[in-house]
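Our collaborator T.R. sent over the components below with a one-line note: 'Predict the complex.' Nothing else. No constraints on interfaces, no templates requested, no preferences about which chain binds where. So this is a plain run: every listed entity goes in together, and whatever single assembly comes back becomes the starting point for the next discussion.
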Amino acid sequence: MTLLNESVRREVRQALAAMTEPVRIVLFTQQEGGALECGFCRETRQLVEEVVALSDKLRLEVHDLVADQALASQMGIDKIPAIALLRDERPQPRDFGVRLFGIPSGYEFGTFIQDLVLVSQARHDLSARTLEQLAALTGPVHIQVFVTPTCPYCPRAVLLAHRLAIASERVRADMVEATEFPHLANRYSVYGVPRTVINEVIHIEGAVPEAALMDELMQVNDPAAMKRLRAEWGL
Amino acid sequence: MDLHFELPTTGDGAASVWDVAIVGGGPAGATAAMYAARADLRVIVLDKGLTASALGITSRIANYPGVPEEISGAELLRRMREQAQRFGAVFVQDKVQAVDLESDPKLLFANGGTYEARAVIIATGSMARGQRVKGEEELLGRGVSYCATCDGAFFRDQDVAVAGNTDEAVEEALFLTRFARTVHFLSPTPRIHAPEPLLHELSSQPNVRLYLGAALREVIGGDHVTGVRVALRDGGEQVLPVNGAFIYLQGGRPATDFLGGQLPLNETGCVRVDAEYRTTIPGVYAVGDVLCNHVKQAVVAAAEGAIAAMAVEKALRGRKQLAVDWSK
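Returned assembly:
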């Protein structure tokens, strides 16, 4: 049975028509009966395959997290199912650091489709102020946005994080479906979504506007502030 | 987890630019929709629900011209909406979270998707909350939530409280019954303003406890929520041990938070408009209780909606005078 019905397939086809460059979807999963616990590996693979069939600008590359550990680690993939979206440029695909951990279902399905278009167009639509701030970053930034599939506010938070990753080589940004990775939700005390976690210790509740998120994010450039936050989180 | 895969819609299933998007479906919004749709404009009304408006929770109304019988505010509003729909206005239950009023077309970011419109009429009323209760802000994201559908899954087999008295609060509480062990429903009023079938569904859930006339006073907790303090109808107080507090209370302030400061407000938080209900941003209008110096009566709100709709029509068609096609 297909996951996407005909009307959704038609809408997705229409949305993907805006793609300019091809996108390589790198899916990390495991075979049926694999050693790791993975509630939605099979469905995620099926979903991605169904989406790839809807545009000739999409390519799919499937890896096993355990067998392809070196590549996974190089790409910052440590849990499954995981999706990395790369702009399929020549000679090398370009990895902006856009990641989705957990199945992009519910409201996050729309995020996944919008991500494909944004990565394809290498488009971020960020303000001049944000771009200035990103240019001033002195170290790596890892954004994790915790979501649930039933959260209508979450796509805005995820898409903002992904647009920041597209705009800056220093930023990588993950969507993390909280109910599939409860150990992470516990680790970061996530009781509400969207929760944006930056470099482990900067926590932002809700889908905040771009400028507000950037003001919080820029604390990564302040060693004293980061030291204080790390101490607060016992790190 | 049930799997669903759909793209956000913009009202009629197609990505399209509406002539007019109206935020709020009370008497002001519904009348604006009626007039704009009758002038052959493509109109969408985004509204949280029937009891989100002051008229929707009015139990009896006897002074609305042309309606001599005493009817409920919800019934009057239902008739207004039906009349607007007959002229082609589209009503969508959705909550606008943010806007970009300077862009062309104007953008409304809502839970169900992004809506685009050439003109926007703000008719969100004045039932937004003012003060938060003690502990609410500190514990946001640590058990305090405004979205059960988002966060319900974190409260599996735990006890939670829902504070509110609207259909939105009831629907969110019903969602929580799927996860939570006990849902304590705290209605600040003796009556919950929601349709009877919805109320029946709520009261027949085995894991729901109803508290009528119960005011949420405080959310208690350190790292996360551990309880809520409630003032009861009999004058007593009770602390309910819960891990989650879902808050859908209303207040008496103009509902302008979603504007994100894009329109100047006066010191009481009201949007300022001219005689045609135009705000300071071209193509953006405001009507009804969200305004200052507004007499809070359904008939006044409706009249303002009519004037704004005609002003929108005039602006979009590039005419100098307001016009109504009386022959239709």
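Summary for T.R.: Chain A touches chain B through 42 residues (CB under 8 Å).
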